[in-house]
Amino acid sequence: MNAVVTSRTPMRDNTSGVGTLLRFALWRERLSLPCWLLGVGALVAFQSLGSQRFYDTPQKLAQLRETIGASAATVAMGGPTRLLDTIGGEIVFEIFAYLAIVVALMNMFLVGRHTRSDEETGRAELLRSARVGRWAPTIASLALAGLADIAVALAVFAAAVGTGLPVAGSLLLGVVTAGVGITFAAVTAVAAQVFENPRSVYGAVGLALAAAYVARAVGDVGNGVASWTSPIGWGQRSYPYAGDRWWTVLLFAAATATLTAVAFLLLDRRDFGAGLFGYATGRPNASWALRSPLGLAWRLQRGSLAGWTVGVFALGAAYGSFADSIEDFLTDNPEIAAYLPGGATRAVDSYLSLTVSIIALLSAAFGITSVLRARGEETAGRAEPILAAPVSRAHWLTSHLAVAVVGGGFVLACGGFGVGLSYGLTIADAVQPLRMTGVALVYLPAVWSIVAIATVCCGWFPKAAVPLAWTVFAYCAVALLFTAAFDLPDWFDEASPFTHTPKAPLESVTAAPLLLVTAIAAAGLGVGFAGFRRRDTGF
Q: CA 65 to CA 84: how far, in whole Å?
């Protein structure tokens, strides 16, 4: 077996070609990596400027601490209240969990793409035909992640210091953010040895990330013990700007070293191209549900749909649990009202409108992943055998888009139901789940519009479809969440479909804007179909 031979291979042979692979990986990531770094730095800088403008006196910070400390839901979403002792800590409280998730995902994609994805597509086999050692791809991917995390630390440090925060706390914030990243890079390296396909790797790392977030939340609401089982909790409990606890960095180093050792141990015990857990043996005959392109598309995407549904429902439930407290929160922090669509006059509906908009944005993200899955089937060569059968291009693409369109609506409805369920429980109103589900579906045309844009990208700009689709998503996110906070010009958000969607339940719902956005979405789908029909597949 391959493992027996490689375990006796000299270290020099196992690691040959690392430098070349690392340079090649840096070239492949020359566009995406700067985008990640720019996003991380911008998030820190904008939050820092906004928080320093809001809480410019000790009294305002004390009011915030008193209000947030009384809300378990806010603590669960933010972190330990000790961070609120200083303005820098308040910034960490607001964004660190999200910052950690972004950096963890960046590392997951970096390591997964250069290890398991390359093995699945056969690219790694081509590289291994040259003088490339067995360990070299994994070492190069971890080195790439390490370099990216160093750049993340520098970006966070520069953004924090550049906006006036203390140097020592900024340095610690950058280091622990990078620590979360490199820890999840090592987690991905382990998962890449265990599972045989990238989707399982990403699913396993995603579950680990969700578990880390939940453990941190449980610890922050409880006695804090659970937070020490989470890398996100380690970062928050280093208390940048509120004590600067540096020894927590050792936890990241120990976890990364242990996980990396496990990854290489497993790497020597599996066959090249395989995982410890291989594909399950299928049934001798396909079920009737797989006798159509739609059945196949559903089979390929049902796991992703289930994951997004559960995640968005949980987020909606968390948002809804805080809705009844929003008026008290605004009483202590009236400046926040400026960032709610309707201000403080109808605080609860204004808050619900904002939270459902965020859920709609996440539902659109599922739609993008679903459309891009069709593109992934193309580039992997799995679409060709299907299209060689009596299946038209339109039929094949429609099958995947059906999952994106219907699945996006389902995720949106479940998120709205989650908001209504938790809000209804807090105010003892059984009608709220159905009401908020209906409210959420008002945003469905906007979700479809983003799906249509992703389809246009796949149809006409297939090689750039992934970055283009996610750039559109990032623009919509900034337009929805930060136009007011960052004092962006009024015209900035005009191209976002969410701008032209009634802000239910704050605003009355009329048919005209919904029909207009739906018509634009339908036109976009048609343009995307036209592009797909005229080009070669797989390119």
A: 6
d(CA 536, CA 44): 42
Count H helices and E strands in the chain, helices first: 23, 0
Task: Please tell me whether the peptide bond between 390 and the residue prior to it is cis, using omega within 30 degrees of 0.
Answer: no
3-state helix, strand, coil in the chain (%, to 5): 80, 0, 20
CA distances, 464 to each of 197, 459, 503 (Å): 23, 10, 32
Residues 6+ apart with CB under 8 A from 341: 350, 353, 354, 503, 506
User: Can you tell me whether residue 351 is helix, strand or coil?
Assistant: helix
Helices (H), 116-197: 116-121, 123-128, 136-162, 167-194
Q: What's the number of CA atoms in the CB half-sphere (13 Å) around residue 175?
A: 20
Contact between 469 and 453 (Cβ < 8 Å): yes
Q: How far apart are CA 175 and CA 252, in angstroms?
A: 10
Helix (H) or strand (E) holding 81: none
Question: What is d(CA 105, CA 205) in angstroms, rounded to the nearest whole number?
Answer: 9
Tell me the chain's radius of gyration from C-alpha atoms.
Answer: 24
Residue 527, number of CB atoms within 10 A of its CB:
16
Alpha-carbon gap, residue 244 to 86, rounded angstroms = 12
Element (H, E) at 361: helix 347-379
Q: For residue 277, which phi and psi values (nearest 5 degrees)?
A: -105, 105
Give the C-alpha separation, 374 to 393, whole Å: 11
From first to last of the 539 residues of the chain, give the pLDDT tens digit.
Answer: 444 444 456 677 788 889 999 999 999 998 889 988 988 998 899 889 888 887 888 888 888 787 777 667 678 778 888 998 899 999 999 889 889 999 999 999 999 999 988 888 788 888 888 888 889 999 999 999 999 999 999 999 999 999 999 999 999 999 999 999 999 999 999 999 998 888 789 888 988 998 998 899 888 878 888 999 999 999 999 999 998 999 999 999 999 999 999 999 999 888 887 888 876 677 777 777 778 889 999 988 988 898 889 889 988 887 887 787 777 766 666 666 666 666 666 778 888 998 899 899 999 999 999 999 898 888 878 888 888 888 888 899 999 999 999 999 999 999 999 999 989 998 889 999 999 999 999 999 999 999 999 999 999 999 888 888 988 998 898 888 777 666 677 788 888 999 999 988 888 899 999 999 999 999 999 999 999 988 887 66
Q: How much is the pTM?
A: 0.78
Q: Where do the structural domains in the chain lie, given as residue ranges?
A: 12-278
Contacts 24+ apart (CB under 8 A), 23-28: 25/114, 25/140, 25/141, 25/144, 26/144, 26/147, 28/114
Instruction: Look at residue 278 and give its three-state secondary structure.
Output: coil
CA 2 to CA 287: how far, in whole Å?
36
